[in-house]
Amino acid sequence: MNQVTIIGSGVMGKGIAYSCAISGYKVYLNDLNEEILQHAKTAIDRLLDGSFEKGFLKEANYISAKENLHYEVDLETAAKDSQLVIEAVLEKMDLKIDIFKKLDKICGAETVLATNTSTMSPTEIGAQTSRPNKVVAMHFFNPVHKMKLIEIIRGLETSDETVQFVKEVASQLNKEAVEVNEFPGFVTSRMNCLIGNEAMNMLMEGVASAKDIDKAMKLGLNHPMGPLELADLVGLDTRLRNMEYLYETLGEKYRPCPLLVKYVKAGRLGKKSGSGFYEYT
What we know:
Distance between the termini: 42 Å
Structural class: alpha/beta
Largest sheet: 8 strands, mixed
Number of helices: 12
Helix content: 40-55%
Low-confidence stretches: none
Mean pLDDT: 95
């Protein structure tokens, strides 16, 4: 493989594009309009510059990564020649299915179509295409350039060849992969959402402050980041969509905390909006 396309230039899309570019792949990052893509380019360039200045990237790698990155609003132009397309849009099934139907018509028969979903069914997405054997979930973690794991989730029709292909891509990206049989929430999201939701319930009940809940989890259970900090980083609107999906598919224990619902209604979406469980300036 030498070319990959990323659909969606949000937090995850930018991170995946950066990781692919520094790993030697030609990368097309696609989104709705030029303004959105310009914001993405600015953020990726800033990350590349910082990585180079701090010595994490050698000069040749830094230069080639910048040359490898292409920003394209037209989906067909972005995806038609890639051997792998990774969708990284909002956790909305209808939106994902619409994109995969379009990609199925645009891409060559051998192109692998991956979704970066953290909870949703690659089987359901793949069933809407003519190539369910070539559809898989690749769940990256935020921040992508620092986090070592990719969950690879096999749909009902996903072939062994496709799983092996994305495992090799994960290795090229210097990531570790775990293979998961499809079930709502997979491994990490199922556990993480449960922990985060309980932390929100404890905050709502007045058990402890957000700062002390997070501190207890970090120092007492050796979590690298507290569950409320992590929810702010992911985005509380994204976390709510994940919880609603898991509540629908797995039942009562995943009922979203009322405080999470209230914060999203108030526009307190976490770090990206300037406030969530913490204030950001």
